[in-house]
Amino acid sequence: MARSKVIITSAITGAIHTPTMSDALPYTADDIAGQAVSAAEAGAAILHLHARRPEDGGVSIDPEHFAAFLPRVKQSTNAVVNISTGGSLKNTIEERIAPALRFSPEMCSLNMGSMNFSFHPLAKRYDTWKFDWEKDYVENSDTYIFRNTFRDIETVASALAPHDIKFEHECYDVGHLYNLRFCMDIGLFKAPVFIQFIFGILGGIGPEVDNLIFMKRTADRLFGEAYRWSVLGAGAAQMGLATTASQMGGNVRVGLEDSLFISRGKLAESNSQQVAKIRRIVEDLGAEIASPDEARELLGLKGADRTGF
Ligand code: KMH
Ligand code: ZN
Q: Pairing mode, if any, of strands 51-52 and 193-199?
């Protein structure tokens, strides 16, 4: 069977890292749009987008902050836009889906289980911080329960159903695959579902290749042909796990949301640098990357002409 092309997702800024941690982390609308467009030019078919407050880089789910960059991204690239519904430490599920409801993108994220989700160990690395909010935000992430109950998942699925949005089902552990199977069985999602296997978040499964094989085998058993998959390794695991996934027939996600580094101990200069690196690896190892339209075909997306921005 012909090997499927590899879809590269670039996750541009996220809700974990803060401006102190890297000058490359984008948070103004100009910088988010610019880095998103460059990542697409480097080979990303999907752009996974969060918003930030332009004045201090704080995590934002205000639709106005998305409105400041989404049209620019659309005008300058054919890449698929994927809007996060992850939110930040304190948002309700209704707040978290407001941007997706307003902009009706081709894709949005959907987190498949409640969990501890912590990055507090990062706080020890910094003595001074660029902005007031950062230290507390990072340190207090050890008090955080990332809430994604079955009711929350159903709320997202039914609120967004009229928009024909394909979800990036974020699965941080093997139980989340079973949650997704249950949700498919009760009719919330139609095949093929797109699963992002996530490794290395504190609170989720660790970033070992054994775990990737276990997740993949479990997904094969639960979903058969009814799924497509991608891998996100957090921090130092990013490039290694992406490389392994691409060799196993999977798709990959890179980006400053998930890792600030380009190699051991060296900060990445941009999202596009990470995309260019994984593209080079994928192609050197004999696979091809998918264009945005090929990604649309592979995932069954509605098309950029049916978005609300
Ligand atoms: N930051 C990633 C580990 C979301 O946006 O909904 C998970 C994520 C969640 O991308
Ligand atoms: Zn995200």
A: unpaired
Q: Which atom of ligand 1 is nearest to the CA of 84?
A: 5
Q: How many other CB atoms are found less than 10 A from the CB of residue 102?
A: 16
Residues 6+ apart with CB under 8 A from 147: 93, 114
State the helix-helix crossing angle for 209-223 and 174-185, rounded to 10 degrees: 10
Q: CA 129, 10, 254, 262: dihedral to nearest 10 degrees?
A: -60
Radius of gyration (C-alpha) of the chain in whole angstroms: 18
pLDDT tens for the 309 residues of the chain, in order:
567 899 999 999 999 999 999 999 999 999 999 999 999 999 999 999 999 999 999 999 999 999 999 999 999 999 999 999 999 878 999 999 999 999 999 999 999 999 999 999 999 999 999 999 999 999 999 999 999 999 999 999 999 999 999 999 999 999 999 999 999 999 999 999 999 999 999 999 999 999 999 999 999 999 999 999 999 999 999 999 999 999 999 999 999 999 999 999 999 999 999 999 999 999 999 999 999 999 999 999 999 999 999
* HSE, side-chain direction, 13 A CA sphere, residue 88: 21
Q: pTM for the whole thing? A: 0.98
Pocket of ligand 1 (CB under 6 A): 11, 14, 16, 84-86, 109, 111, 170, 198, 201, 257-258
Residues 6+ apart with CB under 8 A from 290: 5, 6, 7, 8, 45, 251, 298
Residue with tokens 């949650």: 179
Residue bearing the CA closest to ligand 1, atom 9? 86
Token pair 């264009």: residue: 291
Q: Which residues have beta carbons under 5 A from ligand 2 (an ion)?
A: 14, 84, 86
Q: Which one of the ligands is nearest to 171 CA? A: 1
CA of 85 to the centre of ligand 1 (A): 8
Map tokens 């992850």 to a residue. Answer: 86
- The set of residues, in sequence order, having a beta carbon less than 8 Å from that of 126 and lying 6+ positions away, is 20, 21, 135
